[in-house]
Amino acid sequence: MELAVSSRPCAPPRRGGRPLLPVALLLPASVAALLFICGPLLVLAWQSLLEHVPGQVGAAADSPLSYRNYLLFTSPSYLNFLWGTLRISACAALAAVLLSGLIAYRITRIRSGWARKALIGLMLGLTFLSVLVRVYAISLTFGVGGPAGAFLRSLGVALGSREYIECVVILGFLHFLLPIVTLILIGTFQGISGSYYEAARSLGVASWRAHLDTTVRLALPGLYSAFIVAFSLAASSFVIPLVLGQGKVLFLANLAYVRFGEMADYPGGAAVSIVLLAVSLAIVGLLGKLLGNRLGRSA
């Protein structure tokens, strides 16, 4: 029996038109993100353009749109608060990345499996510790009656000086950021083979230079991501500067709380929040561009 074979070529698969299933799956998440993330931020931005009447709660009735609330940042005091927030947050984030990088690298290079799992479990467990508990632990240790505070005072350190209080605030940030940043960087260093370092050492390169040219260079994207996370968490922090700052070190988040909670000046608090968000996004974008250019030149 002969089979009839059609000489007509098979139709090529259709390539036009996008499948609807991925779009349908992404649509609920996109709508939720717009409603619950972008929506409140838009309301905050709109509120910052209204005017507040002292003695009233929130914006004045029939308030015209104005940028008057943003003029607060033309005063030296608010600029100092902004500069202090960014400076201390950057110092804390940089210190957290450096220390966490060393810890994460050592964890990934431990040969014993149970020891590595125990250290990762310890870091994971520390993330569940309340920020308030961390803050008061640092305060009791480095305060006037604490052991570290008493020792430093015997050396002539002024515990009430602004410089010392800023250092204590940075220590509070480190206590909070170290476990988080370490867990982020563990994945980064796990993906870097130790053979690059060994190859550099076999060519006679010094140990520190071999680490700098291989391990650190390959870990730059992960280090940048960890710095951004640490900086964002520090710059938006409220409890740590409130308790450890002792009224001498205040962040913009604390000023926003004063505007919202104590003065009922919702437009002023919204303006402070929008400025902090805009400046943080600008810094993140600038750092991303600088890192991209650096990686592009080294590629």
TrEMBL record:
This is ABC transporter permease subunit. InterPro entries: MetI-like, MetI-like_sf. SUPFAM superfamilies: MetI-like (SSF161098). One of its GO terms (biological process) is transmembrane transport. CDD domains: TM_PBP2 (cd06261). Its main location: membrane. It is found in: Cell membrane. Belongs to the binding-protein-dependent transport system permease family. CysTW subfamily. Gene3D superfamilies: MetI-like. It is a multi-pass membrane protein. The chain crosses the membrane at residues 20-46, 81-107, 119-144, 164-186, 218-244, 264-287. The lineage of its organism: Bacteria, Pseudomonadati, Pseudomonadota, Gammaproteobacteria, Pseudomonadales. The keyword Hydrolase does not apply. Residues 82-287 form the ABC transmembrane type-1 domain. GO terms for cellular component: plasma membrane. Coiled coil: none annotated. Keywords: Cell membrane, Membrane, Transmembrane, Transmembrane helix, Transport. PANTHER family: INNER MEMBRANE ABC TRANSPORTER PERMEASE PROTEIN YDCU-RELATED (PTHR42929:SF1), INNER MEMBRANE ABC TRANSPORTER PERMEASE PROTEIN YDCU-RELATED-RELATED (PTHR42929).
